[in-house]
Amino acid sequence: MITITFPDGASRQYEPGVSGADIAASISKSLAKKAVAMAVDGSLCDLADPIGTDAEVKIVTRTDPEALELIRHDAAHVMAEAVQALWPGTQVTIGPVIRDGFYYDFYRETPFTTEELGEIEAKMREIIALNRPFTKEVWSRDKARDTFAEMGEGFKVELVDAIPEDQDVKIYHQGDWFDLCRGPHMVSTGNVGDAFKLTKVAGAYWRGDSNREMLSRIYGTAWADKKDLAAYLTMLEEAERRDHRRLGREMSLFHFQEEAPGAVFWHQNGWRMFQTMISYMRRRQEAAGYEEINTPELMDLELWKKSGHAEKFAEAMYLSEPKDERTFAIKPMNCPGHVQVFKNGLKSYRDLPEKVAEFGKVHRYEPSGALHGLMRVRAFTQDDAHIFCTEDQITEECLKVNDLILSIYKDFGFDDIIIKFSDRPEKRVGTDEVWDRAETSLRTVLEATGRDWSLNKGEGAFYGPKLEYTLRDAIGREWQCGTLQVDFNMPGRLGAFYIGPDGEKHVPVMLHRALFGSLERFLGILIENYAGHLPLWLSPLQVIVCTIVSDYDDYAVEVAATLRAAGLHVDTDLRNEKINYKVREHSAAKVPVILVVGGREAAERTVNMRRLGSRDQTTLPLDKVVADLVLEAMAPDLKRTYESEAAKSSAERIDVVEVFEGFVVNDGANGLSSDVFETREEAVETARRILMERGGGVATVSTLAGETERMSVAVEG
């Protein structure tokens, strides 16, 4: 007998070879009817699969979260059957589950069109209504190869040949139709349900190889119920409205063209935004103790062989062979270059941790079909940093990195952060003791965040464990951005060392750290998260000054000059167009603040202010608008410094203030106010005495008439 343990901790004895269907039936008729699959020791399996040893088993019903992946997987198979039923001779290739849906790649002479999706959906509903069971067979390689070759399914023959010898060749039937598949599947096609939608068609090369056949890819989504489907489709519509590629054109941020696929042509506005991000990061990193460096983009291929990147990234690297016959590579990442900087000069344990950072331009080849605006490019800038430290410093440094990452994300408006922890894989370098210490360090970080996190068991790199930081945006999409990775391998491979307290050479631990990941991609995420309505400090054009009639062009130019002198990004619109037209145009370009000036504003030295996304209009004095916008346009880190200094200054200041009854002395340092003095002289003398006792300082004297006088007191020492 074998012992089956259930999620609630209860267990039962069964004969070896018992199936999930048998177990469900032994529990209740209701569960047997609802069951669609099972999870054995955490892995999804067919309900009909036999269980031969003790195991933890969960019977999965269609409403369980685990079933969603199966619904989508089955929907992909149903779609493939529908396509071949409608267009005989179409070859099927692969059809995986992806985030929020699935796709299937087909080969036929004429690519599919969006107009044909409705016909495919209708056929899918027919197949689902037949409720045909999914059944699994294991075939020999020869049988699978011969069968698919006879059917004219050349791509399937390639897939059969690629299956490792130690793996079964599994075939899943749904009625007369069958497919090569690892599984698992639900009990029958009827469990797919009716909450699905085919969303788009695209082209894709077989195996991602541009020298191979172009396939026609059909994307779809499937959910447990129509309510979830409707919510997802609404999100897709909103995502389309927020598409950074469209907004990038409307805001004149950037463009792409055929002469440089996957490389960004930055316009003035986009480059200004890009530089704003770099300036912000530069300040934050400097405050955190990082030294900014810069390493060559082109380096000898031998360095990349030593680091291991030449083997891992061979297909993604750009190579050059100049006349001296040495082969050079454009860097796909910054790590090896940073090790070279660390190696330049003898390092002591007293020099650690050493923190270096770079806004490094890297190049990685991506198939043309995979390129997607700023989100997937071939040339991009990484905010890479590396911390060289001792094993004893790992925990402290990881905690600092984590705090920095979360603080920076918050400044950019992201509070909903998902953290994933990837621990040791089976194949790895380093002793278990060192891995224990590194994993404990990262677990300490996770506990310190107080946030939920998930474990990617065995998914760490061979050289160390890592944390991945995923942002959830305004419409619920997830974007993996930041990483914190412990590396025991690369410094040693590249000959880095420091002299320890024992006088011997030791290999440092290397912490890889990125926050944005790719600045280009993060900028795209920001555009979509805010739908172009960027915070004022990030906006490349912060204010536009518009005239109602040309008579007041001079005042508009003066307003713009005043704002520009205060450090704001400003432009004027003096065209002979109706003001409503100007407002609509600049709103479409996502300019955050529109100032309108006419005769009244010029006479009173005011402006009429409108905010992006609001119909409200407010007329305010120009000086107040300048002061308010300057404060609002400060980057979050600078604003914190300003507010802290302002609070400190206020706390230390002495104010002599005229009131109706006389004068009052306010002592900010002690939070005290004096009694009312009848004369100004008495109040000023009291303020002077306080400053003398304090060792000097500044007092202000303010009258009811609005006059202000500063009084300085210095004590000779």
TrEMBL record:
Reaction catalysed by this enzyme: tRNA(Thr) + L-threonine + ATP = L-threonyl-tRNA(Thr) + AMP + diphosphate + H(+)
Biological process per Gene Ontology, one example term: threonyl-tRNA aminoacylation
EC number assigned by the record: 6.1.1.3
Keywords assigned by UniProt, alphabetized: Aminoacyl-tRNA synthetase, ATP-binding, Cytoplasm, Ligase, Metal-binding, Nucleotide-binding, Protein biosynthesis, RNA-binding, tRNA-binding, Zinc
Enzyme category, top tier: ligase
Classification via CDD domains: TGS_ThrRS, ThrRS_anticodon, ThrRS_core
Cofactor details (free text): Binds 1 zinc ion per subunit.
Similarity comment: Belongs to the class-II aminoacyl-tRNA synthetase family.
Assembly description: Homodimer.
Full protein name: Threonine--tRNA ligase
Organism for this UniProt entry: Acuticoccus mangrovi
